[in-house]
């Protein structure tokens, strides 16, 4: 898209030279992948990245490796990685950010124990899965770090020079992204400036933004023309207790001389000098007295009113300086690539200028060298124009450079085994990792990871608000105290009993001479029955029916409560216990769960139902998946199914048809997603006789403690609200995942939720 150009100034006249500043400045789903591909082709207008609702519906368990597949594909897209094997991410090139929230210490048990408290998570996140128990380093698994250690480090940059356009490679210049943005003719300086809208898109600090309230403007508000002076800028940062802070600034004038090269002492305690990147050590910084405010004051004096700053990922430098400057050229965006990817400065220096920078034998980067390189890249672009750059065929050069690296014989396996960090590094980007001081992970010591360690969850939250917009990929880890093993066992027992009692109904009273066989057939028509007993303790007989699924019990209540059956007006209700007192509220909220909104439950389906439905698929618009549960022992199809549709409206229309006179099925909207069924099956079976209490009532002291703000129920509600506010601050086009990994100690299955279409 052609950006707006509203900068003041005129085109450079022929023969007129631009003013230079001297060196020193004075002053089992049934939907298949073919269905996914067809869906993508049928929706060319949709431009938002989104995750297909047809996911791992049959097994509903996602491995760490499969999650890693999705994350790598989200970073690089199909040009570099195959599509994930278990899901479909549409319009990946419109994906702008990936954010992973990890609630360490919480699990699927917490999610369903405090289901009503996690209101935002269950309503906003459409896809939910189970995962295997976490390993000793859960984070390393999901981003592929352990695989990286097996196959070795990233290939180093190729030695020697790169081939240039003289190789006579046939190039279609029309399709080059640089030509598409700038055209064939040479452009002036003002054409290379980022517009205000572009600066907003790429998270440059701007006046009026909430996260820039304390930023200092450079006071450069003069009229910029094509002969305004250029200044190369590069900053080095360290990590402090408050986040990233400036440790070095280099400013290079267009003449090539360094007009400012200062070490800066951060205001807060340094927790990581990032020496491998910055070259800064404790010994170097100890005697420094210059502060950030001193640098800001000097820059305001040094820069003329129409100064243009040039840098590579310049938004990060300006944020480190806590300064706002309106006229910028970012070489990572000037040499534009497809799908929003960026070339690294080291590659551009070699490919365009034929020079080696950031040499591996040197400790850290040379800020002055980097600043001078960005300046030279901008001048090269202005001198030779977009056509010359396009003829260099940078994408081919980049691919050639990669092809010259020593490769594993199993090259395809090596590509698949690269970590998320390596994927980010290949496009010149870093991963942000926010966590608490006490949490240890191999991720925090990785070179391409910007780790910020905090003292509390509250500080993690505050840092996340500021730092997430600055990175394309962020992992934010909150830490909570897990349930003890004994309490976990007790909670599992309570949850199992709760769902069993919610799936149980009492029906009656019936006449003493009622047709028991007919009654059994009637109640079995609502769904699979695990246990049906005749209750004779009452004046007139009742039936106790324990269903396999919650939907069947709810359907029986809705269909038969208050209805005349076998000559008696019966009441159908659940048992009233301390675990079912909030049952009506819970059922209503389950129906509103985002994963259940487009899914319907049907009972009474035959073995030929699938074929019959597919023959009439034209009347069931929006059908995405058909889930036909089977008996684990016999392998036979059970008499019920779930149908998943794109929208709630499509599901409602299908339900009306399928429960009508032609199909004669019983059904309602779904209440329990597949992953919940799988999880409950994994718990030890629990049951209790009616009226028998297996859970002792809490003492007065214990009951009082439950009202304390530290109680897990209160914490679930509190942090659910906090994460909701943080989520709403994410930019559009964000793939957001929330992981509840549990603990290895008690082997609790994690809980995963994700929503790419922010």
TrEMBL record:
Keyword RNA-binding on entry: yes
The terms under GO molecular function for this entry are: exonuclease activity; RNA binding
The signal peptide stretch is: none
What does the entry list under GO cellular component? nucleus
All copies of the RRM domain together span: 503-577, 598-668
Recorded hits in PANTHER family, A to Z, give: RNA EXONUCLEASE 5, RNA EXONUCLEASE REXO1 / RECO3 FAMILY MEMBER-RELATED
Q: What's the name of the protein?
A: RNA exonuclease 5
Q: What is the lineage of its organism?
A: Eukaryota, Metazoa, Chordata, Craniata, Vertebrata
């Amino acid at each position: 898209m052609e950006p707006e150009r509203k900068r003041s100034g005129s085109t450079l006249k022929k023969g007129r030279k631009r003013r230079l500043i001297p060196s020193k400045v004075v002053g089992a789903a049934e939907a298949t992948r073919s269905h996914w591909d067809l869906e993508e082709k049928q929706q060319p207008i949709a431009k938002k990245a989104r995750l297909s609702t047809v996911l791992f519906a049959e097994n509903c368990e996602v491995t760490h490796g499969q999650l890693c597949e999705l994350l790598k594909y989200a970073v690089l897209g199909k040009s570099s990685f195959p599509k994930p094997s278990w899901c479909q991410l549409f319009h990946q090139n419109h994906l702008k950010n990936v954010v992973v929230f990890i609630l360490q210490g919480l699990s699927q048990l917490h999610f369903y124990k405090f289901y009503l408290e996690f209101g935002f998570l269950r309503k906003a996140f459409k896809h939910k899965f189970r995962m295997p128990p976490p390993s000793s380093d859960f984070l390393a698994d999901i981003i592929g770090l352990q695989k990286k250690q097996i196959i070795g480090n990233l290939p180093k940059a190729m030695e020697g020079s790169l081939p240039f356009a003289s190789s006579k490679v046939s190039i279609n210049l029309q399709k080059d992204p640089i030509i598409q943005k700038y055209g064939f003719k040479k452009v002036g300086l003002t054409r290379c400036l980022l517009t205000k809208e572009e600066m907003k898109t790429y998270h440059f600090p701007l006046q009026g933004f909430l996260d820039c309230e304390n930023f200092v403007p450079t006071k450069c508000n003069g009229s910029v023309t094509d002969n305004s002076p250029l200044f190369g800028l590069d900053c080095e940062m360290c990590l402090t207790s408050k986040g990233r802070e400036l440790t070095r600034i280099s400013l290079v004038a267009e003449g090539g001389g360094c007009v400012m090269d200062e070490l800066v002492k951060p205001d807060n305690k340094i927790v990581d000098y990032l020496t491998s990147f910055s070259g800064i050590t404790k010994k170097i910084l100890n005697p420094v007295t210059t502060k950030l405010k001193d640098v800001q004051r000097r820059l305001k004096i040094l820069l003329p009113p129409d100064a243009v700053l040039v840098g590579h990922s310049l938004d990060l430098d300006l944020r480190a300086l806590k300064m706002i400057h309106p006229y910028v050229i970012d070489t990572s965006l000037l040499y534009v690539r497809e799908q929003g990817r960026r070339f690294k400065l080291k590659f551009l220096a070699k490919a365009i200028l034929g020079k080696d920078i950031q040499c591996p034998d040197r400790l850290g980067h040379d800020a002055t060298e980097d600043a001078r390189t960005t300046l030279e890249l901008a001048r090269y672009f202005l001198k030779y124009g977009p056509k010359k750059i396009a003829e260099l065929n940078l994408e081919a050069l980049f691919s050639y450079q990669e092809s010259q690296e020593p490769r594993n014989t199993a090259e395809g396996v090596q590509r698949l085994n690269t970590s998320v960090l390596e994927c980010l590094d290949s496009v010149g980007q870093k991963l942000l990792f926010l966590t608490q001081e006490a949490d240890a992970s191999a991720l925090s010591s990785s070179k391409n990871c910007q780790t910020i360690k905090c003292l509390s969850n509250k500080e993690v939250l505050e840092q996340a608000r500021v730092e997430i917009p600055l990175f394309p990929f962020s992992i934010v880890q909150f830490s909570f105290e897990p349930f003890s093993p004994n309490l976990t066992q007790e909670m599992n027992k309570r949850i199992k009993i709760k769902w069993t009692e919610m799936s149980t109904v009492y029906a009656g009273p019936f006449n003493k001479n009622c047709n028991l066989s007919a009654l059994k057939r009637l109640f079995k028509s609502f769904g699979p029955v695990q246990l049906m007993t005749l209750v004779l303790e009452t004046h007139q007989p009742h039936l106790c029916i324990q269903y396999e699924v919650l939907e069947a019990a709810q359907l029986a209540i809705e269909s038969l409560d208050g209805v005349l059956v076998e000559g008696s007006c019966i009441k159908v209700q659940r048992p009233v216990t301390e675990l079912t007192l909030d049952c009506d509220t819970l059922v209503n909220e389950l129906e509103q769960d985002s994963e259940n909104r487009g899914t319907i439950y049907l009972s009474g389906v035959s073995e030929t139902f699938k074929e019959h439905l597919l023959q009439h698929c034209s009347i069931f618009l929006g059908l995405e998946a058909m889930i036909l549960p089977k008996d684990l022992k016999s392998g036979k199809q059970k008499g019920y199914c779930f149908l998943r549709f794109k929208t709630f409206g499509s599901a409602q229309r299908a339900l009306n048809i399928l429960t009508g006179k032609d199909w004669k099925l019983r059904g309602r909207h779904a209440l329990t997603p597949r992953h919940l069924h799988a999880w409950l099956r994994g718990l030890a079976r629990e049951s209790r006789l009616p009226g028998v209490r297996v859970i002792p009532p809490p003492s007065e002291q214990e009951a009082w403690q439950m009202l304390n703000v530290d109680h897990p129920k209160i914490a679930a509600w509190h942090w659910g609200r906090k994460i909701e506010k943080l989520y709403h601050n994410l930019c559009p086009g964000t793939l957001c995942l929330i992981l509840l990994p549990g603990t290895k100690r008690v082997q609790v299955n994690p809980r995963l939720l994700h929503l790419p279409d922010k």
